[in-house]
Amino acid sequence: MNPSRTKLTYSLLLIVGFLTVSPVVMLALGSFSEGLTAFGTFTVDKYVEAYTDPGLLEVMLNTIVFVLGSSILSTVLALFLAYLNTRTNIPFKGLFRVLSIVPMMIPHLLFSVTWALLLNPSNGMINVVAQNAFALENAPFNIYSLHGMILVEALLDLPVAYLIIAPAMASFDVALEESSRVFGAGTWRTLVRITLPVLRPAILAALILGIVRSLASFAVPQVLGMPGRVRVLATHLYEMIALGFATDYGKAAAVGMSVLATSVTLIVIYRALTAESEKYVTISGRGYRPTVIELKGARIPLFTVVALLSFVMVVLPVAVLLYTSFVPYTMVPSARAFSAMSFKHWIDVLQDPISLLALKNSLFLAVVGATLGVILSIFVAYAIVKVKSRASGILESLSYLSFSFPGIVIGIGFMWFFVYTPLYATIWALLIGYIATYLPYGIRPLASAFVQVHAHLEESSLVCGASPLTTMRRIIVPLLIPGIVSAWILMASMFVRELTLSVVLSRPGSEVLAVQILRFADDGLWGRLSALGIIMIFVSTMLVLLATFVGSRFRIGDDPGTQVAAPAVAAAKGAAQLA
Amino acid sequence: MEIRIQGVSKRYRSEGKTIIALDDVNLTIPANRIFTLLGPSGCGKTTLLRCIVGLEAPDTGEIRIGGQIVWSKEKNISVPPEKRGLGMVFQTYAIWPHMNVFDNVAYPLQIRNLPRDEIRQKVEKTLHFVKLEGFENRPATKLSGGQQQRVALARALIAEPKVILFDEPLSNLDAKLREETRKELKTFLGKLQITAVYVTHDRVEALALSDSIAVMRAGKIVETGTPQKIYFNADHQFVADFIGRANLVKAIVVAQENGHTMVDSGLGRLACQHRDFPVGADVTLCLRPEFIKIVRGEAAGAGNVVNGRVESLVFVGEAYEAEIRAGNELLLAKTHPDVPLKEGEPVSFSLDPEHCLLVAA
Q1: DSSP letter at A402?
Q2: A38 lies in a domain?
Q3: ipTM
Q4: What is the pLDDT along chain A (579 residues), one digit of tens a residue?
Q5: Are residues A359 and A211 in the same domain?
Q6: Does B87 touch chain A if contact means CB atoms closer than 8 Å?
Q7: Non-local CB neighbours of A159 within 8 Å, separated by 6+ positions
Q8: CB–CB of A44/A258 below 8 Å?
């Protein structure tokens, strides 16, 4: 093999290894230490302390119910939607595309806040309306509960589950079902004996990814769980390191170790399952048309359900935030509310030095972080796809490891690391943490871009007389542009909204948007929160548009319409499959 | 331009095993002819082509194109592909998806920094030549397979290379289009004074297109010759069997008489095409199905007449394929659909000695 390629692979192994392995190692070492400042003296005290905590049992039970409940609900909803879209004549199928991609643009934190504003028991808008309408004494809904958390988390995980199940459903050969019917099985029997078993790998993959995501979820338990004292592992960890007088990173690391172990195991299973589900793709021929089931009378009611779901997931959050940012305090929409509207919260936020600093920091992290992350990803993707060696195989596994990192746990690991470096409490700590945790978001779209650049495309340019450098400039880079744009969009929009890692690593001076929003939520400053939330959505939308525009400038001689939209859509899809 | 390949070998290591892709290949490809490398997949034909074009480096040997050494292990010469000035059509066509037809075809000239007007003229001329005039502004990936293939050809021809290489260019087309494109390609190449090296595993393609054919197996050239020589007069059993359907019958040489070689076989004593085998040598008799001319009923008489019985009969459209039991041998024969035959019927056929091919066993 080419020696310069080997050198490249090894130096990448070193960088990626540092980024992904060091927080894990530090977490493990930290869990056996006395505390952040007393690193190195071996002790198992923290494990004993953490796992004999009488409160832990309840936290564990809550976590299990929350994680299983939300992942099962999101998988079932996704199955239902995927079936409606691929197999029935439901109208306006474009809506499913919206439903599967657009919700990912809305940060989990803001989505959770929206539900708190609508359904909290003291002055949630829907609760107030219902109480007035039916003269109820108590609020009918309480989102500050395990049920509420499960519902909201399930809605957040729904797009991802849908994007895993829908393609499997679409590539399902209907002849398998038809032959079952011919041999005498009824519709129900066919569904249970044929359809679901064939789709099993995809369903399990969606379920497991749902479990990993909800296990790592921090926004929902923090915003919706804490007011009702429903604690799960993520918020339990956060309490140990952020609240009270005595923060205990050692104990947090001890608990974090088992969360991390669970998560890594699940991701290993997930990757095995997705490999399996590729085997289950049952059609490959051309001219294939799935038979469409006539919904008849159920067509409109079912469509209403989907439309309502889209409204709840896409329109409602933004509308609620906008509304809340203009009214002086939480009130039900009415003539009085509209006449009381003002820009007060917007002015407050724009004059708040910490909010402005957070905005500046988040923008910096998004632009610089995504750019550095993409550059690293280009080299890693190249090594993974084009340099096939044992070292590049290890590199691939390493670079996907951070997939399974629950932000808060890995944040604790990084904390142990940064405390011994001058990076502690600086924005660079966040930058490194972000890139390490979200590396797969950059590598995935770039790896598939490299796969598409068939060796022949490169070779034919050489045979035509172009030097390797010209080939790089005129053939390879232009072909990679959509992948680069997708990767940049993915990383930048993740960085703008990043919460779970930031709550651990951010210190006074290195605040970011999501942390500041969470602080407003803790203080009940819903108006300012909404204004800053809208700014956050606006910033991330602008970055997406900018990246798409820059990307389209590089492309020549192609149909502009589809090309411009393609990277953004690809990015959103990539996000789904990854996150 | 003539291409001379001397002592070229190439090994790969794959999953811990060493694969010999080329094993001391010596070959001269004559100038301005269509030369085909034919062989089963994995025989090394594509590797040889990629060594000629410079995309792969052999382990040993020397390659000259028109007198210039482009690769030599001993002299430590290695001309990179972009400096060899060749044209190539890839199996996947390698049409660049981010460019339109014009840019794809103009690329080699743009690389050579030709003036824009001249590029435009030449592209127009070349597209006209491959019958794609008016396609300049189409996105190249929106074309049909056959059209993409012609874009790839136009791109390979536009810089007027002295040698053009084809790596299984028709294998991605469906059967009907493949036949049409093959005829077109033959016409295109016939009009040009150009050395064409063509790699394929399809024997019909090789026979129809080539001026000469080199049959390869396991990294070696087995035999080289005109299509007629390869088909009718192959020296090797592998070649005779690979190039067309053949009945292979074991035989022993008994005499050399009247310009024929006489053999004893399961079909009796037969006069065959003359070959220099010693008396008593074990040989293989090779009979093509289309030369076994069947008539109904037994026939007597001397001189290559064989009696047999119809064992099975299959209608394949333009002919019947009959399996004839003659002695211990089961022979495949093609008969005209007009000849009325029934299974189990006694038949006879006579064999023209010129079509009784003997190869080493």
Answers
A1: G
A2: no
A3: 0.78
A4: 455 667 788 888 899 988 888 888 888 888 888 766 666 677 788 888 888 888 889 999 999 999 999 999 999 999 999 888 888 888 888 788 777 777 777 889 999 999 999 998 888 888 888 888 888 888 888 999 999 999 999 999 998 888 888 888 877 777 777 777 777 777 778 878 888 888 888 888 889 989 998 999 999 999 999 998 999 999 999 988 887 666 788 888 888 888 999 998 888 888 887 776 665 554 443 334 556 777 778 888 888 988 888 888 888 888 999 999 998 887 778 888 888 888 889 998 899 999 999 999 999 999 999 999 999 998 898 888 877 778 888 888 888 778 788 888 988 888 888 888 888 888 999 999 999 989 988 888 888 888 878 888 888 998 888 888 888 888 888 888 888 888 898 899 889 999 999 998 988 888 999 999 999 998 889 999 999 999 999 998 888 888 888 877 765 444 433 444 455 555 555 554 444
A5: no
A6: yes
A7: A99, A100, A101, A103, A104, A576
A8: no
B96 touches chain A (CB under 8 A): yes
Give yes or no: residues A385 and A504 share one domain. yes
Interchain pair A465, B139: CB under 8 A: no
Compute the nearest-CA separation of A451 from chain B (Å): 14
Q: Which CATH architecture has domain B245-360?
A: Beta Barrel (2.40)
Which chain B residues are Cβ-neighbours of A462 within 8 angstroms? 54-55, 80-82
Task: Note whether A6 and A95 are same-domain residues.
Answer: no
Check if the beta carbon of residue A327 is closer than 8 Å to that of residue A337: yes
Domain holding A272, by residue range, is 56-282
Boundary residue ending a domain (A228, A253, A282): A282
- Say if B136 is an interface residue toward chain A (CB within 8 Å): no
Task: Read off the CATH number of the domain in which A561 is found.
Answer: 1.10.3720.10
Is residue A567 within 8 A of residue A482, CB to CB? The reply is yes
Residue A545 CA, distance from chain mean position: 20
Q: Are residues A386 and A533 in the same domain?
A: yes
Pairing of strands B34-38, B195-200: parallel
Q: Which residues pair with residue B293 across a beta bridge?
A: B350
Which superfamily does B3-240 belong to?
P-loop containing nucleotide triphosphate hydrolases (3.40.50.300)
